[in-house]
Amino acid sequence: MVAGPGGVRPRTSMKVMLSILAGDVAAPPKYAAIAAPALAIYASKDVADQIPPATPAARREEIIEYFRRHIRPWMLRSEADFIERKSCGVALELPHSTHHFFLRSPALTAAMLLSYLDARQPCAWRAPPGLDAANW
């Protein structure tokens, strides 16, 4: 997101965003075709992660509202699609995380993935305790 004199707008051009959306609609992921167990990790849907640190409070609120109204619904639909279509799939949303959680907390990310890969019953896997308190 870019905050300018005309308000908040996506950093990515509309042409590129529409191309991505067209591909997503034309060829959505075929989760049902995945035979192996799968873990889908989702960033928090309540954190707008691309706000420059020096953004004034009023502008920050404008960006967060844009995120809630336009980006969050798409993220929710994407996660629901995985949950509904993938048998033996586990969807995990990392609380208070951004899209780049794996860069910010590589050790936590690795521990979580290893826990899943080590599970005797991956279809019934649950995140290790304390995940809510993690610093994603």
General shape: flat
Backbone structural class: alpha+beta
Give the oligomeric state. Answer: single chain
Number of helices: 4
User: How large, in whole angstroms, is the Cα Rg?
Assistant: 17 Å
Quote the distance from N terminus to C terminus. 21 Å
Uncertain runs are: none
**What is the string of SSEs from the N terminus onward?**
EEHEHEHH
The main sheet comes to:
2 strands, antiparallel
Determine the fraction of residues in helical runs and give it as a percent range.
Answer: 40-55%
The largest beta-sheet arranges its strands as: 1-2
Q: In percent, how much strand structure appears in the residues? A: 5-15%
Q: Total strand count, please?
A: 4
Would you tell me the overall average pLDDT? 83
Notes on the protein architecture:
With 136 residues, the chain is α+β, with helices and mostly antiparallel strands. It is built from four helices and four strands. The mean pLDDT is 83. The protein is flat.
Strand and helix map with partners:
Layout: E1 2-4, E2 7-9, H1 14-26, E3 38-43, H2 57-85, E4 89-94, H3 101-104, H4 106-118
Parallel strand pairs: 3-4
Antiparallel strand pairs: 1-2
In short:
This protein has helices spanning 14-26, 57-85, 101-104, 106-118, and strands at 2-4, 7-9, 38-43, 89-94. It is α+β, with helices and mostly antiparallel strands and 136 residues long. Strand 3, helix 2 and strand 4 form a beta-alpha-beta unit.
